[in-house]
Amino acid sequence: CDMHLTAFLRAGNLYSHKFQSGKFWRAYKRRHDHYWRKRAERTAYQGEGHYLPEQNDGNPYMKGPDPCLLCKNDVQVDYKNVRLLSQFVSPFTGRVFNNRVTGLCLDRQLEIIRAVKLARWAGLMPYEHKDERYYGDIKIVD
User: Fold this and answer.
1) Quick count: other Cβ atoms within 10 Å of Cβ 79?
2) In angstroms, rounded to a whole number, what is the distance separating the alpha carbons of residues 51 and 3?
């Protein structure tokens, strides 16, 4: 028998029982609305090209988050600046550190990731480990 599952469910009236019931669609809409509401909260635009969660609640006298190291010093990220990019790459695995480790904002972290990929593609940085010439540099990331 080459009967499809939906045809089988329709024949047994199980398809219409599940997908045409109001209970199923109410639960579906509740999950759908919850996802998009939370997504809007996560990606709320706060100006200056930075996406931060909304900070409506909390202490109004509390100091805001400090700017990241690259924003504070107004450093431009470029794929040809391998010495800067190597500060954000693990010396053992060659992977780019997470922004929780680096302390960068989301925009600068994405710029670093794109620049590292481009520098590797151009042959300026190795893929698997940090270049030995930059082992003696001052550590930006702990």
Assistant:
1) 18
2) 50
Q: Which two tokens stand for residue 45?
A: 């635009």
**The tokens of 123 are what?**
């042959």
- Alpha-helical runs (H) found in 20-105: 22-42, 69-72, 82-85, 99-102
pLDDT tens digits, one per residue of 43-61: 555 555 555 555 556 677 7
Q: Is pTM, for the whole model, over 0.70? A: no
pLDDT digits (tens, 9 = 90+) for 85-141: 988 988 888 899 998 888 898 899 999 999 999 999 999 988 887 667 767 776 666
Length of the chain: 142
For residue 92, give the nearest of 126, 58, 136 by alpha carbon: 126
Which residue has 């700017």 as its token pair? 67
Residue in the block written with tokens 């996802």: 35
Closest by Cα among 64, 60, 69 to 47: 64
Label residue 108 exposed, middle or buried (CB < 10 Å: 0-12, 13-18, 19+): buried
